[in-house]
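Box 3.1 A note on notation
Throughout this textbook, protein chains are presented in two layers. The first layer is the amino acid sequence; the second is a token string describing backbone geometry. Keep the layers aligned when reading.
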Amino acid sequence: MYTRKVVIVNKLGIHARPATKICEIASRFSSEIYLEKDGIVVSAKSILGILMLVAPKGTEITIRAQGIDEIEAVESIVKIIEEGFGEEI
């Protein structure tokens, strides 16, 4: 299992568009991928699950994956989050 923590940096946090981006990226990988915030764990392949995290700017989330492409999966999601989903930071 590979795990990384990342802080949400875009101004609006995780709303529908960023949740969709995370889900699209996660769906490219065969690994099981999860996001966690405050003890709530959701699948990174579920838009509704991601939205349930309610993650505004400044929120720290944990991304974990298990499978043959776990490192690439987690790092791909970390990258898009650290880039602010292409939105205003």
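The chain has a mean pLDDT of 97. The longest helix spans residues 70-82.
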